[in-house]
């Protein structure tokens, strides 16, 4: 015996996988802790959502029938715009303090770290919107079956919004007027999620089955999970010239 230790390929793969999971957990925990220390950024989308729903009856009509008809589209548009409010901050603080460059040169794949940041963004923005929106829907006389469908569609749709929005946020990071460019980039990509999400709520209000709409939203979410972290990582490298 020569005293050397042979490492099998399986051991190396397991070690790499463990390293990626550890890095993912570290980034996720870090972003969540930063949000808890300065929660104002995460409260802005919820405040925007509340103001839109509160002001809409004053601008259109207080008639229950009119509000009930318009509620699915209004709730989804308001949730979409509320999600967009916090997208610009997704990579901004890391860019300003220089930690974004450290992520780009980390030994772990960049798309794994980006996915952790997107998940943190959804947990503090998209998930609260999905929980709060059905409660606000009752202000627009949305029936119970519509509120339940709204929650389910937002639960599937808001992660896709965060994933797609991360690509735009990565392209716009460092730009002086990045918010304008971000809106122009992501709004056209949000249209399929908006259509299927609002249509699912309309179908539920009409007493129809929404399994098909949920399946389409799930497909869009799966496609976004597969493509958007990689695209956002590539966009970050382009934006920072690395």
Question: How would you describe this protein?
Answer:
This protein is mainly alpha-helical and 242 residues long. 82% of the residues lie in helices and 0% in strands. α2 packs antiparallel against α3 (64-85) and α6 crosses α9 (211-240). It is globular.
Count of helical regions: 9
- What is the oligomeric state here? single chain
Low-confidence segments, ≥5 residues, pLDDT <50?
Answer: 1-6
Measured between the Cα atoms of the first and last residue, the distance is 46 Å
Measured on Cα atoms, how large is the radius of gyration?
20 Å
* Biggest β-sheet description: none
Strand content: under 5%
Beta-strand segment tally: 0
Classify the secondary structure makeup into a structural class: mainly alpha
Mean pLDDT: 87
**Overall 3D geometry?**
globular
Order of helices and strands: HHHHHHHHH
Helical amount among residues, as a percent range? over 70%
Short overview:
This protein has 9 helices and no strands. With 242 residues, it is mainly alpha-helical.
Give the topology.
Layout: H1 9-37, H2 40-59, H3 64-85, H4 92-97, H5 99-104, H6 110-137, H7 144-172, H8 178-205, H9 211-240
Which terms would index this structure?
242 residues; mainly alpha; 9 helices; 0% strand; globular; disordered N terminus
């Amino acid at each position: 015996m020569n005293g050397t230790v042979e490492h099998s390929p399986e051991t190396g793969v397991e070690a790499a996988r463990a390293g990626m999971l550890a890095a993912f957990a570290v980034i996720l925990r870090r972003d969540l802790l930063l949000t808890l220390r300065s929660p104002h950024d995460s409260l802005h989308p919820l405040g925007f959502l509340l103001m839109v729903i509160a002001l809409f009856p004053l601008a259109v009509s207080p008639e229950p029938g009119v509000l009930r008809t318009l509620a699915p589209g209004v709730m989804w548009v308001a949730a979409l715009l509320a999600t967009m409010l916090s997208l610009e901050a997704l990579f901004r603080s890391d860019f300003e303090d220089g930690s974004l460059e450290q992520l780009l040169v980390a030994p772990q794949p960049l798309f794994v770290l980006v996915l952790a940041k997107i998940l943190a963004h959804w947990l503090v923005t998209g998930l609260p919107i999905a929980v709060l929106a059905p409660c606000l829907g009752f202000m627009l006389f949305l029936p119970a079956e519509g509120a339940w469908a709204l929650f389910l569609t937002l639960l599937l749709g808001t992660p896709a919004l965060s994933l797609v929005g991360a690509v735009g946020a990565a392209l716009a990071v460092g730009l002086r007027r990045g918010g304008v460019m971000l809106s122009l980039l992501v709004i056209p990509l949000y249209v399929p999620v908006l259509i299927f999400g609002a249509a699912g709520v309309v179908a539920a209000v009409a007493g129809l089955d929404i399994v098909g709409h949920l399946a389409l939203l799930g497909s869009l979410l799966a496609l976004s999970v597969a493509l958007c972290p990689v695209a956002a990582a590539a966009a970050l490298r382009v934006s920072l010239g690395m």
